[in-house]
Design a protein that fits this description.
CATH architecture of the domain at 81-253 in chain B: Orthogonal Bundle
Strand content of chain A: under 5%
Helix content of chain A: over 70%
CATH superfamily of the domain at 89-265 in chain A: MetI-like
Order of helices and strands of chain B: HHHHHHHHHHHHHH
Oligomer: heterodimer
Number of strands of chain B: 0
Strand order of the largest sheet of chain A: 1-2
Structural class of chain B: mainly alpha
Largest interface: A-B, 110 and 104 residues
Shape of chain B: globular
Largest sheet of chain A: 2 strands, antiparallel
CATH class of the domain at 89-265 in chain A: Mainly Alpha
Distance between the termini of chain B: 27 Å
Helix content of chain B: over 70%
CATH topology of the domain at 89-265 in chain A: MetI-like fold
Number of helices of chain B: 14
CATH architecture of the domain at 89-265 in chain A: Orthogonal Bundle
Number of helices of chain A: 16
CATH superfamily of the domain at 81-253 in chain B: MetI-like
Radius of gyration of chain B: 26 Å
């Protein structure tokens, strides 16, 4: 993901800018379709949701303006706090663990298996890890929802290997529902960092590894001293895109648990959807959405700032 | 390179080399086991998609199917009228991919090559739009679609996703076109080509690989979308493949074999696309990561 600076950099020549500014008008025309559509589908609705978050409305008739009441109610709403706690769990399951496991897997696939066996072997293994990323996440959710059912495949498997005492209604018990959903999300996400990191490693000069190996550096030292620093840009991209995806996660929750049992797996986006369309509290749902939006924007800005700072530090060194 | 360096290493550290010879098989076994574990859910699904409900309730989810039972597949196919769902998904995803690429290209032309004033803010806005949770847009979209008579039409979903995908496409293409060689543009201008001609005859052919990656991404992303189609498309004639599966499962009417049969049918197109587009995709992932 290119930072905004790189887009701007070549244009900072003042002379060229002055000379062209007269013909700017012609180019504005090309922006017109995109801009109109953008205002219609994204800008307008976002502003309207912001307005609705200050009202009480069931979707029919006219919204009643109530100021910040919805936001005040949110602060004392247990479901709201639970849903954001669960977002942290989703970030662990969709960002932290897949990235860590993905780093090790990519390094092993590339460094050990790709070089000591045929590259074909590494590619086939990579495809296996990536496959869950290919299917519609709702389909994955439905298959897993069945596997985790009381009469599903997981309990069947436990019975078959003599661990029948461990069988459980995995998604129906508030204590196991969240860990079960997290496990599914790790399975869904893992392939993405593996594929991105393996592609990144191809960019790294192999002589670095060769040299380190001749110097007697073990696998872990090569991993820490070469792999990690070399693919840091990709780690940032994976971290940012997955964190945003984790904060927005909806489909898997809808397919697996609908936020239940007892809100144990509720997340902000499902909470908002439910408030909009099942409880018909449009104002309150809008307030949830606006808080989620704000948090996502803040996290994204912090991420991009951190990345730019890291890049600048590298430039100095 | 590895090959040329191998002999001296072998001479220098024979013991370590032998040790690693065993270690590498252990590593392969571990990673192979992990990869197999990833595939287990697919195996479960396949096993139970061809099982009769009676077979399932007597013999459980792990048994080999007593007979090659395809009624579950046929039931799901007919119950949701799968060909219609497939066509809806293809129509929506295909239109979105093409329209979003066109809109992205036009906007990026103005931003990356035209370098119009305030472009940094505009690009930032598009980037931000890409991160928004769809919940922040969905109620107004739903409400306005109803007022405009577009509710429960595929057109509404096509328009919405064209804009959402184009937000990303504009951001990406604007940064690609920001580094477009000026000499090519100047040469085109000398040949008397206007802006419109330059866009289609000079710029487009030079960024064709990026465009094809975007087309594939937009198609697959739109195919897999869920929230907006779930809210916007409510009947059998308009729903997409994932929404059909989810809403039938929501009715709690489906037995385990039909669930698995439905999931199997629904993921086949995705796997098909994956196989078809694999080369474009892996190139795209690499290209994206290079940025």
């Amino acid at each position: 993901m290119a930072s905004l600076d790189t887009v701007d950099a070549p244009a900072r020549k003042p002379a060229g800018r002055r000379r062209r500014s007269g013909s700017d008008a012609g180019y504005w025309l090309y922006l017109l379709p995109g801009a109109v559509l953008f205002l219609l589908v994204i800008g307008g609705p976002l502003v309207y949701t912001g307005y609705l978050s200050l009202t009480k409305w069931s979707g029919v008739g006219d919204p009643t303006f109530i100021g910040l009441d919805n936001y005040r109610d949110l602060l004392t709403d247990d479901v709201f706090w639970t849903s954001f706690q669960n977002t942290v769990a989703m970030i662990i399951a969709m960002v932290v663990l897949p990235t860590l496991i993905g780093l090790v897997l990519a390094a092993v696939l590339f460094d050990t298996i790709g070089r000591r066996f045929r590259p074909r072997t590494a590619a086939a293994l990579r495809a296996a890890f990536y496959l869950p990323q290919v299917l519609p996440v709702v389909v994955a959710g439905i298959v897993w929802g069945w596997i985790l059912r009381p009469d599903g495949a997981l309990n069947g498997l436990l019975d078959a290997v003599g661990l029948g005492s461990l069988t459980h209604d995995w998604l129906g018990d508030p204590n196991t529902a969240l860990p079960a959903v997290m496990a599914v999300m790790i399975w869904v996400q893992l392939g993405y960092p593996v594929v991105v990191f393996m592609a990144a490693l191809e960019r790294v000069n192999p002589e670095l590894y060769e040299a380190a190996e001749i110097d007697g550096a073990g696998w872990f030292r090569r991993f820490r001293a070469i792999t990690l620093p070399q693919i840091r840009p990709e780690t940032f991209v994976v971290g940012l895109t997955c964190t945003i995806a984790a904060m927005k996660v909806f489909g898997p929750i809808f397919a697996l648990t609908r936020g239940g049992p007892e809100n144990a797996t509720n997340v902000p986006s499902y909470f908002a959807y439910f408030t909009f369309f099942k409880r018909l509290q449009v104002g309150y749902g809008s307030a949830i959405s606006m808080v989620l939006t704000l948090i996502i924007v803040v996290v994204a800005v912090l991420f991009i700032r951190a990345q730019n700072r890291a890049e600048r530090r590298d430039g100095v060194l | 390179m590895a090959i040329t360096l191998t002999p001296p290493r072998r001479v220098r550290r024979p013991a370590d080399r032998r040790h690693r010879g065993v270690a590498r098989w252990i590593v392969l076994a571990l990673v192979g086991a992990a990869a197999l574990a990833m595939l287990v859910p697919f195996a479960f699904m396949l096993l139970n998609a061809f099982k009769s409900p009676g077979d399932y309730s007597t013999n459980g989810p792990l048994s080999w199917p007593g007979e090659f039972y395809t009624t579950g597949l046929r039931t799901y196919w007919e119950q949701v009228d799968f060909p219609v769902k497939l066509w809806n998904s293809v129509l929506i995803s295909g239109s979105v991919a093409v329209l979003a690429v066109v809109v992205s290209l036009l906007s990026a032309y103005a931003l990356g090559i035209g370098r119009i004033r305030g472009r940094l803010w505009i690009i930032g806005l598009f980037l931000l739009a890409n991160m928004l949770p769809q919940e922040a847009l969905i109620y107004p979209l739903y409400h306005f679609a109803k007022e405009a008579g577009l509710y429960n039409t595929r057109l509404a979903v096509i328009i919405i996703f064209t804009v959402i995908q184009a937000a990303f496409g504009t951001y990406l293409l604007a940064s690609v076109l920001g580094t477009f060689p000026r000499t090519l543009l100047e040469a085109a201008a000398l040949d008397g080509a206007g802006r419109w001609r330059t866009l289609w005859r000079v710029v487009l052919p030079n960024i064709r690989p990026t465009i094809s990656v975007l087309l594939v991404f937009f198609f697959i992303w739109t195919w897999n979308e869920f929230l907006i189609p779930l809210v916007m498309l409510i009947d059998n004639q308009t729903q997409t493949v994932p929404v059909a599966l989810a809403s039938l499962q929501g009715d709690r009417l489906m037995d385990a074999p039909t669930t698995n049969a439905g999931a199997l049918i629904s993921l086949l197109p995705a796997i098909l696309f994956f196989l078809i587009f694999q080369r474009t995709l892996s190139r795209g992932i690499t290209a994206g990561a290079d940025k």
